[in-house]
Amino acid sequence: MTADVHTPPGLPVVGSVHRLARDPLRYLAGIQNAYGGQYPLVRVDPPGNRPVTVVTDAELVHEVLADRDRFRRPQGSEQAQRREGLLSSDGQLWEAQREVLEPTFVGAQLADYADIAGRTVDDVLADWPAEGPVDLYEEMSVITMRVITQSLFDQDTTRERGRRVREALEVLGRETEFGLLDFLVPDALQTGPSDDLEAANDLLDTVAGEFVERHREQPDPPRNMLTALVEAKQDPEVALADNELVDEAVLFMTAGQETTALTLTYAFYWLSRNPEARQRVREEATTVLDGDRPGWDDLNDLTYIEQVVRETLRLTPPAWNIPREARSPVRLAGTDLDAEELLMLSPYAHHRDGGAWDDPESFRPERWSGSASRAQDSYFPFGSGPRVCIGRQIALTEAQFTLAHVLQQYDIQTTTADLDFRLGVTMRPDTALETSVRTVN
């Protein structure tokens, strides 16, 4: 290992890994602000397990994410290997999947998805009280679950099914939470999946299987993601896994639902703490929409609301860390890395880098109308490179439309003072956000 990697001071034997495990967000943000611009790589040495290296150089983050030949998604956990959908597959299988699914997320399809988002928010708001408490995250989960299943499967879903999926995701979140033992105990000695985790995975497979089965039963199914996969499996030159349909349905149903629901939940939280920004959102929504639900033609006019969404993703990115591992011994930024060395590429930390952002801890949507750039290296809430989130435009559009449509009808106030998080694959609220709603008309 060369001198280009810095190792922070720590305790004997365990080094500084206990700090990372105890409070990953604070530790990673601290590493970023203490060593970013000085050391491109900062190494944490867990005894008895594989090395862990934090990438603090933003350009290097994008280099790693773009280099599929040398770096891959970590392969260690059973949960990561359970399904072979686009989000978890690798190599030629991933290439085949991406080629098949890409057309589903571009072009005229996006206008259809935008209309679905507008109608869905309308339907959900019809059940809201004129005044009273709501479970904000649950309501946002209902909206995003319905949007994703209608957009990609052409099938609506019920509130009850959405609740079951959300509860299963909560189990997965608890089971994959960051902890000290993850670093100190070698992968081979980690305990296997619990009964609760198996039950949650089985439920997700069952729900996804129901969508797939209803799709297969249609004599003339609509053109959607499942149709593209069915047709691809009939092509002998496209090698897709036997359980591809269910795997993809699970992964898009859960990833597309959870991350956008979290983005919306956090956006309402930030707007509650910043009433001037909330008023600007309402004024823009009222001016552009005039009481109607949003449609694709309105998207470009919701400029301040787009800035709110981008700023929410900066401060509270649901994908707080994007892990990669070296496929084999490699050299990165003049440093030798071991095979399977874990790299931590943290949007949360880079989004709070004082060297890249003015007043990084403050919620300032207007920064996106000035010096901040969508292409800024230190901003990557959807990842980067060839594996950048395929549904990012759907997510951004859905978030803009939901904020606009809700806030032109309701005042939303969360009274939770400070956000605490539970960290697994995503960054979820540790407790429910206490939220009240009141109609404004």
Question: Could you describe the 3D structure shown?
Answer:
The chain is α+β, with helices and mostly antiparallel strands and 441 residues long. The chain has a single domain (5-439), classed as Orthogonal Bundle (Cytochrome p450), CATH 1.10.630.10. Helix content is 48%, strand content 11%. It contains 16 helices and 13 strands. The chain has helices at 17-22, 24-35, 58-66, 78-81, 91-101, 108-125, 136-153, 159-175, 180-184, 195-217, 225-233, 244-273, 275-289, 303-315, 347-350, 392-407; strands at 5-6, 41-44, 52-55, 71-72, 131-135, 322-326, 330-332, 335-337, 342-345, 410-414, 421-423, 427-429, 434-439. The strands form four sheets. It has a six-stranded mixed β-sheet with strand order 1-2-3-9-6-4. A three-stranded antiparallel β-sheet has the order 5-13-10. A two-stranded antiparallel ribbon has the order 7-8. Helix 6 runs parallel beside helix 16 (392-407). The termini are far apart. The mean pLDDT is 84.
What is the topology?
Blueprint: E1 5-6, H1 17-22, H2 24-35, E2 41-44, E3 52-55, H3 58-66, E4 71-72, H4 78-81, H5 91-101, H6 108-125, E5 131-135, H7 136-153, H8 159-175, H9 180-184, H10 195-217, H11 225-233, H12 244-273, H13 275-289, H14 303-315, E6 322-326, E7 330-332, E8 335-337, E9 342-345, H15 347-350, H16 392-407, E10 410-414, E11 421-423, E12 427-429, E13 434-439
Parallel strand pairs: 1-2, 3-9
Antiparallel strand pairs: 2-3, 4-6, 5-13, 6-9, 7-8, 10-13, 11-12
